[in-house]
Amino acid sequence: ILLVGERRPDIKVDLLASLLGTPLQAGALSQTLSLALAGESRLVCSCLRVSEQRIVDAITRQGVSELAGLQALLGCGSNCGTCLPEIDKLLIKHVFIAQA
After folding, report:
1. Is the CA virtual torsion 94, 54, 83, 16 positive or negative?
2. For 32-70, how does the pLDDT look when each residue is reduced to its tens digit (9 = 90+)?
3. 3-state secondary structure string, the chain?
4. For the whole model, what pTM was predicted?
5. Using CA atoms, how far apart are residues 53 and 94, in angstroms rounded to an integer?
6. Cα separation of the two ends of the chain
7. Cβ burial, residue 87 (10 Å; 0-12/13-18/19+)
8. What's the pLDDT tens digit per position in 83-99?
């Protein structure tokens, strides 16, 4: 696997190593790579590699309370739009908690 980017990603090697010795399946590789690159948090925006934890941190620690703010700060939801329903759920859940 060759990873190219602006910064060195934190990779959970054990997740990728679990694929060794198994028949190659693109879906399994893609899902495992996403988990390995996301660290402790699942990947919400695969286009821009934004994890759930980064979105939650932006909401709870930086006070972002709307989609446009997350898009400006993290870029999530600004490309294909597939993650928009999940981002909306996180906004609803965590903005309410942050305001309580």
Report:
1. negative
2. 666 666 555 788 998 888 889 899 999 999 999 999 999
3. CCCCCCCCCCCCHHHHHCCCCCCCCHHHHHHHHHHHHHCCCCEEECCCCEEHHHHHHHHHCCCCCCHHHHHHHHCCCCCCCCCHHHHHHHHHHHHHHHHC
4. 0.61
5. 11
6. 45
7. buried
8. 999 999 999 999 877 56
Q: What are the structure tokens assigned to 25, written together? A: 């399946």
Residue 16 makes CB contacts below 8 A (sequence gap 6+) with: 1, 32, 33, 36
